[in-house]
Design a protein that fits this description.
By secondary structure, this protein is an alpha+beta fold. It has six helices and 18 strands. The protein is globular.
């Protein structure tokens, strides 16, 4: 069984967000204990196990070092880049089955785009709850920009979107991992996606940091699902228009700058969010 390490949402090796990828061909998935153990051994935020189910269809399961998750954007970008670069598939449209639902993946010669799960808005937070959320990062509600409040949103995984005033505050945030784990369990979320406006404004995307210590990910350099949720959050508030390409910069605080792209469209009253980016293969190995 071969595995690959790919850096997603970047064109530079050892940058972006690393994911393990295990192509299985048409073989069945290994035992769950083995998949979890291999993800733990590779020690990346997610490892994708991908098997072909048809000429143009695949099934992926995603494992963090702690457990299986429903969907992972950067690991999907990495997986289909591996399949394209190793000659398993040409550019084209592919159906993908995940625990989060059935999605469409577009493989281009130099990028991969994928559907997010249908957007779903979760709970908002009282002033007291907001104060707790900001305090978990050494911040206060005074660090929140006017007109924006935290909210839980999902395009596959439920995250708390936590707006901060500017990039200085974003860089100043220091996570209390135990407290964020406690809050994540209380609110039934994967983690916290903190963001601020770019210089050009939120209509051009955002600078972001992502934290999921409950899933053994203290901070992540690029997060497709969270930026899909953020795309919908900003659309609902009038910052993002359908049909435009949006850019989210993440990972700067980790020294692994990444660019996650998104597109939002409206079709028959339904909103569709897609996440895209490029990836670079860096390592190849074999489980003996």
């Amino acid at each position: 069984m071969h595995f690959y390490i790919a850096d997603a949402f970047t064109v530079q090796r050892f940058s972006g967000n690393q994911a393990g990828v295990v192509p299985l061909g048409e073989d069945p998935f290994p035992e769950e204990a083995l998949m979890r153990a291999l993800a733990g051994e590779l020690k990346h935020s997610e490892t994708a196990f991908v098997r072909r189910t048809g000429e143009e269809s695949f099934h992926i399961r995603y494992f963090t070092p702690a457990e299986e998750v429903d969907l992972c954007g950067h690991a999907t970008i990495a997986a289909f880049t591996v399949l394209r670069q190793t000659g398993e598939i040409p550019a084209g449209q592919y159906a993908l089955h995940t625990r989060s639902g059935d999605l469409e993946v577009s493989v281009e010669p130099d990028a991969v785009w994928m559907d997010m799960a249908p957007p779903a808005e979760g709970r908002t937070f009282s002033p007291e709850e907001q104060a707790e959320l900001y305090a978990a990062y050494g911040l206060t509600p005074a660090d929140r920009p006017k007109g924006l409040e935290p909210q839980a949103v999902s395009t596959g995984l439920l995250d708390i979107l936590l707006p901060v005033r500017d990039i200085t505050v974003l860089n100043r945030a220091r996570q209390d991992e135990a407290e964020v784990c406690r809050l994540s369990e209380r609110y039934g979320v994967v983690g916290v996606h903190m963001f601020c406006s770019k210089t050009e404004g939120l209509c051009q995307g955002a600078y972001c940091r992502n934290f999921a210590p409950l899933y053994a990910i203290p901070e992540e350099a690029a997060t497709g699902t969270s930026n899909g949720a953020l795309t919908f959050y900003l659309y609902r508030r009038g910052f993002i228009s359908p049909g435009r390409e949006n850019s989210f910069i993440q990972g700067m605080a980790m020294g692994k700058p990444s660019e996650i792209l998104s597109r939002l469209s409206e079709e028959g009253g339904a909103v569709r969010v897609r996440i895209g980016g490029r990836a670079v293969l860096t390592l190849r190995g074999e489980v003996l």
